[in-house]
Amino acid sequence: MPPVPPRPDDIDADNVTPPPPTDAAPAPTPATPAAAPKYLKPSARSVVVMVVVALLGIALILRAWHLWPFTSSVMVTDNAYVRGQITVMAPQVNGYVTEVLVKDFQHVREGEPLLRIDDRIYTQRVAQAQATLDSARAALANSDQSQAQNRAQIASAHATLSAGQAELQRSRNELKRYEELAAQQLVSVNDRDKFRTTQASAQASVQQSQAQIRIAEETLVSTQVARKSLEAQVESAQAQLELARIDLANTVIHAPRDGQISEASVRVGQYVAAGSQLLFLVPDTLWVVANYKEGQTWGMAIGQPATFSVDAFQGQVLRGRVQEIAPATGSEFSVLRPDNASGNFTKVVQRLPVRISINEGQTLAAQLRPGMSVIVRVDTRSKPMD
């Protein structure tokens, strides 16, 4: 039970000590000396723990930057992808699609037809070109006939000339004899004049035959020149016929190699223009392109074995070998090449594409697709494979 405080009437007034005056200064307290700071000496165990933590941190940094003593001859990069020569299938002629012979993602063989374009116009163009060729050949044959006729005319003119020359010689002889007889007054002057007229007529016949020969020869030359033009027309008609046949054949698009068709973006009845992209053909032959940092390519050589894991295969490892090393870094093939000759310079590590071929006989290789991400490892200390 707590003590009960005394009542006011129970307190003796004589024994009450009056309170000190409020304006009096407080009594001074004696000064105490300041306590000296205490230093805790770390234990040997704490020192060991701190040293171990520091060494682990340094080791992690060296490991992350692949510095000594964590340098390795195995060069690794995740800037790598599966590649393949994807072919863009496009028509070479214009027209309406009449038939699509493949489905999306279908496997096709080389030479297999993929789609057809309406060929009625191109069939008629072939017939038209064939008719033009036949006409040109007929004109060429007519030219040959004309040349034969011209040669016959020349031969006939030469025969006429020979006959005229003989007649001219005979008339000259007759005229000479009659000139002598007329000088002796053995024949009349009228008879002599008749032979003069005969000689002049024979002379004119000879000149006419010579002119006919020249005309026939000029006609022959003209026919020969025209024949060259007709031969050129025949060749042009043949070329037009071949072009028409090529266009007709191009109405059917065939697979250039074995592979797998992408999603077909063409439908029956669609009008397509020459060069328009209709579908893609992904070949069966694939490879890997790894973009290594320029410092990682030291010691890398063609033929060295390589391994790569595909992200889509949950870390499954496939094998290959270094097939080719690019002749320049990727930036050298860009449209806008970097110019470090002006302004501030910031060094950027360049990357060199390395082509990795895929070894045969691997089951997972058939499941590779162009564009897949992979992680490539190349041991630069290994010897190149044959």
TrEMBL record:
Residue ranges, annotated region (Disordered): 1-33
The keyword Lyase belongs to this UniProt entry's keyword annotation: no
Keywords: Coiled coil, Membrane, Transmembrane, Transmembrane helix
Domain spans labelled CusB-like beta-barrel: 285-329
SUPFAM superfamilies linked to this entry: HlyD-like secretion proteins
Domain of life, source organism: Bacteria
A Pfam family per the record: BSH_RND
Entry coiled-coil feature ranges: 161-188, 213-247
Residues in Multidrug resistance protein MdtA-like alpha-helical hairpin domain copies: 154-217
Keyword Ribosomal protein on entry: no
Domain Multidrug resistance protein MdtA-like barrel-sandwich hybrid: 89-279
PANTHER family linked to this entry: MEMBRANE FUSION SUBUNIT OF EMRAB-TOLC MULTIDRUG EFFLUX PUMP, MULTIDRUG RESISTANCE EFFLUX PUMP
Family per record: Belongs to the membrane fusion protein (MFP) (TC 8.A.1) family.
Protein name, entry field: HlyD family secretion protein
